Amino acid sequence: MYSKYIDEVELKAVSTDFNRTKDSLYLVLNGLFDDGDNFDLSHPLKHFNFEVAPIKNNTLLSFPMVLCPRYQEIYKQYEASEEGIKMLKKYAANIPYIYEHTGVNITNFFQLVPIFDTIKSNEEWGMEIPTWAKPVYQYLMSAVENVYMSTVALPRLNKLFGGVLLNEILRNIDKDTETKRLFLYSAHDLNVVGLLGAMELYWPHIPHYTACIIIELHQIGHIPYVKVLYQADYSTGFKEMKLSQCDVLCPLEQFKKTVDRSIPGHKDNCNYTQDTSFLVD
């Protein structure tokens, strides 16, 4: 396991402040640094310290579509664009039907996300899809996929979303590789979407619970390279991802140039609202 060649002091781990992401990170760390050849949950779990990113006033692993006024302003501009209007028209027809059966007054398409998530989660726990939802289940899935796509549709959106985390990763590569060798971030499907979007690798899909992005740093001769791997679901395994203008192994400097338009500058900042009541763990 990792304990054979990475010391815990060479690790930095961060989770969002939700029980499920903290527990996931805790289990991942135990799996990585288990002393045996096979991780066994029947054995006592080892304690690990890791950072917790707060919900408020945090941009690293955030939800800017509900917490960032500037992101919201740019997103409204996207909704008013030809592409945004086309998306809204595509999914508008079923909104009255969903309101009739859920009582949720849909004023923006983000509200479809928790509706679909609830139905999908219940199904995964063995509960039957409600009769009313069966005719619109595929519609809801498609709508959520396109909502996710819309969150990363513009470089200006990415600078306030996944570009923040990507910028942190690049800083880690530039500054911290002498003291840290492994950086772990435990977050949510939307954060996976954001990071993929910042690298222009996202396509309309809903990342599963085990979705994972790995960004590896390789040294070949005197040249550093970056490789990106993505697992959308544990059943599919990892796939090597190829950025535009890059091979699978992308020279670090070329990687930086490719993602530069998603990296926030000093003027790309966000004033957060204080209402986090929508975030229910």
TrEMBL record:
Q: Is Endoplasmic reticulum tagged as a keyword? A: no
Class of this enzyme = hydrolase
Keywords from the named record: Disulfide bond, Glycoprotein, Hydrolase, Signal
Say yes or no: keyword Signal present.
Answer: yes
A GO term for molecular function: acid phosphatase activity
Task: Identify the EC number(s).
Answer: 3.1.3.2
Q: Which reaction does it catalyse?
A: a phosphate monoester + H2O = an alcohol + phosphate
Kindly give the InterPro entries that the UniProt entry links to this protein. His_Pase_clade-2, His_PPase_superfam, Histidine_acid_phosphatase
Sequence similarity = Belongs to the histidine acid phosphatase family.
Q: What is this protein called?
A: acid phosphatase
The upper taxonomy is: Eukaryota, Metazoa, Ecdysozoa, Arthropoda, Hexapoda
